[in-house]
Amino acid sequence: MTMSDQRIESAMRMRPAVLQLSAVAAVGIAAIVAAGDTPMQPVVGLALLYAAYASAWNIVAGFAGQFTFGHAAFFGLGSYGATLLTENLGVPPLYGLWVGVVLAGIAAAGIGGITLQLRGLYFGLVTAVFPIVFAVVATYMGLQEEQVPFNPNGNFAFFSPRSPWVLSAFALGATLLVGAAAVALMRSRYGLFIGALRADQDAAEASGVRTTEVKIGALVVSAGLAAAIGGIYASVALVVTPGDVFGVQMSVKPVLFSVFGGIGTLLGPIVGALVLVPLSEILTANFGGTLPSLSGLVYGAALLVVITLFPAGLVPVMRDSVFRRLSRGEAAPSPVVEAAPFEPLAPVSTDASPPDETAPAVLEIKGVHKSFGGTRVLSNVHLRLRRGEILGVIGPNGAGKTTLFNVINGFLRPDAGTIELSGRNVTRVRPSTIARAGLGRTFQTARLFSGMSVVENVYAAALTRAASREATRVAWSMLAEVGLSARATVHADVLSTGEIRRLELARAMASAGEGGVLMLDEFLGGLTSADSAVLLASLRRWRARGGSVLAIEHTMRAMADFVDRFVVLNFGEVIADGRPDEIWQDRAVVKAYLGEKWVA
Amino acid sequence: MYILQLVIAGLQQGGIIALLSMGLALMFGVLRLVNFAQADFMMLGMYGVIVLGAELHTNFVVSSILLALPAFIVGMLVYQLVIRQVAKAKLASAPEHAQLLATLGLSLVLQNGSEMIWGATPRALPSSRSLQVWHLGGLIIDQPRTIGFAIAVLLGVAMLWTLRHTHVGRAVRAAASDRDAASYVGINVRRAYIVTFGISILLSVIVGGILVTYYPVTPQTGNDFILLMFTAVIMGGLGNVMGAMAAGLILGLVQSLSQLVIPLQLNTAAVFGLFLLLMLVRPQGIFGEVTRL
Known about the structure:
The structure holds 2 protein chains of 2 kinds. Chain A is of the alpha/beta class. Chain A has helices at 3-6, 17-35, 40-63, 72-89, 93-114, 120-127, 129-140, 164-187, 189-199, 201-206, 211-237, 242-245, 248-261, 268-287, 294-309, 314-322, 335-338, 401-408, 431-436, 454-463, 468-481, 497-512, 529-544, 580-585, 587-594, and strands spanning 146-147, 239-240, 361-372, 375-386, 390-394, 416-421, 424-425, 439-441, 517-521, 548-553, 565-570, 573-578. Chain A has 2 domains: 8-248, no CATH class; 361-598, Rossmann fold (3-Layer(aba) Sandwich). In chain A, strand 11 (565-570) and strand 12 form a beta hairpin. In chain A, helix 4 packs across helix 11 (211-237) and helix 22 packs parallel to helix 23 (529-544). Residues 1-12 and 324-330 of chain A have low confidence and may be disordered. Chain B is built from 11 helices and 2 strands. The model of chain B is unreliable at 91-95 (pLDDT under 50). Chain B has one domain. Chain B is 72% helix and 3% strand. Chain B has helices spanning 2-31, 38-56, 60-88, 95-118, 143-165, 167-177, 179-184, 189-211, 221-235, 241-257, 267-281, and strands at residues 133-136, 139-142. Chain B is globular and about 60 Å long. A two-stranded antiparallel ribbon of chain B has the order 1-2. In chain B, strand 1 (133-136) and strand 2 form a beta hairpin. The chains are: A alpha/beta, B mainly alpha. At the A-B interface, helix 6, helix 7, helix 13 and helix 15 of A face helix 3, helix 4, helix 9 and helix 11 of B.
């Protein structure tokens, strides 16, 4: 598997977007002019309309990584909204379709709410249910077949039925509009959150990204655009039926075109539709009489061939063969990348002494219990992290260390007990809120935002606490802190193990904010001593600037020189708490690690 | 009495959904594969029984038995030639989607290919059997549906027994629970995968053989069922074969009993509405376990 397949265009790499959309406009205008008044004009219009529809689907499925198999629900609402308004109130479809857009937006928010907790395949499969329900209800309401009223004298807002090119022009406009909307969205600060969500929902949430809102937001935008296109489609199809606009085919088509052209790319869905729709229409026109299902067969075969031979799709494959990247893994310029690297933070003395007993607690865990089924994993855990302290949590495998972290940062809800962060009760609060309250974490196996550059990884986390200018400054200074400035513009996917840990630390620091709490899950394991030294130095500086650290390791040895205090967990209980030299002597600790017979 | 009649109808319909969903759940549990073409293999089984009936004059039971082995072989071939190829060249970061998209392509090919061969007009078995009923007290019991239900139950039990008590079944379950560990202890995981796919397709084809006795077939018949199947599989807890079976029966009952409270035309909406409510309360399904992180 080469790098190219992993490359999903994150916003930041959409710099040539204007160029790409101009090319689409040029091709579209040429096709419309060439088709003129011939029977090819409706084909051009349909292809452009599906290009727009696939691009709308691609926003939520490709860019945000939330596959849906039920976009017909939104498309159909647009079709019905426009048609019913024209039919009953004489409103031109161009204005009527906005009702469908609003309905689809509301429906998308509702669907997002219902499917909130679902991920990946679950989410995709459950969304497939909605168009079926809508179709059943539409049929029940007696809307089996709605004619789009023919208005021969209608102006352009009726898509001028006398000049077929007008409809194609609107379809082209829709394609460009959806493309531009995608670019604008991905270039905004939400673009980074969308990229983070796509890469790793948990890591994004733990970095302070409101993944639920981002997910629903992307769905609402995508659904609204799909409904607008559905509204135009009604005038192409002339008759609106539930089986068509809410049909399985209507949900499958955007998937098909996007995957064929390249999901998660700006041009992919457009190219997919512009290739496959005319192909299928021409086949139907020529062989439709004898082989009515030929076009469907071609769709299926095209999907099979593409997914087997080049799963990234047509556009990425062609782009890679045409423009070989000069420097492998180099990310394209983006606002944060272009910002001149800021001066590193002012040097601070790193030999700050550990806080004394009177230092205020920044993280306070009281009586936390957590069980999975019948297994008790955490049992009455009390723990206090003081401001400016580096606290090590150690314990044998299965002692409950990672569970403790997951309870603290909100991934898991404790069965009992409270967690206070800087005096604020954050028990049973969602991870992004806890992160914003000043908590950053790393994961036992690193979870970066792949597909984004190194600096964007940090920038996305910094953006959850600050406006873009300040976030840019934070991102660059955190990279300087961990010594990664030189690698800022490469893709996170190409980093070495040591660099990955450094980047995770920089991201955690950016999401915690200065003076916040860092939680590090076995982050020293498997590192070279040079890498460890860099990480430990930045942790000491973090502490000197008023931050605090909670670190998990298996072994005391790894951390003995840099922690101020150890807490030892065994079978979910705190069995010891003290300075490193005290812990060495502790009978319970020796017993937990080595067994009864080693206790002197 | 009316309610009892509806319960019987619901169980009969549910039995079919249950058996279909078991195949899908098995496939998901073992291969982590969502097969959009599963119901289209059922459609092929329906056509197969009609064709065999016309050519060899065999009844649907004999025809289904005749189709079982070819179905198993076709299933294994599809796995080898399509699914495995995709697994090799998967979409980075979303491997399950690549295979799922391949099955979507397969579904389109099967539906449109069937339409080329058999046309779009609905076809049914020419027998008069579909009209025969038993009278039991005041109840009217539809014969083909009842026979179909009985076969579905037998097949379901046979499949569970195979999974629990045979060598192949244990290999399949081992591969499902931990692919790597299974291969370390000498289980041929690839063979377990192929066999699973084959069995799952076989089940679909046989269900088609039962269904065609009372349900006319078109190339798109699979679309009437695939979402119900997924619904049952998700309700049962993704990958839980027993759960899918129970959920399938429940769906059939809900579909049938919903007539008591809402118009018949909305029963599909009732089924999916219930499903969505359930997703709100128990996103992991009725019998699923909470998996986090």
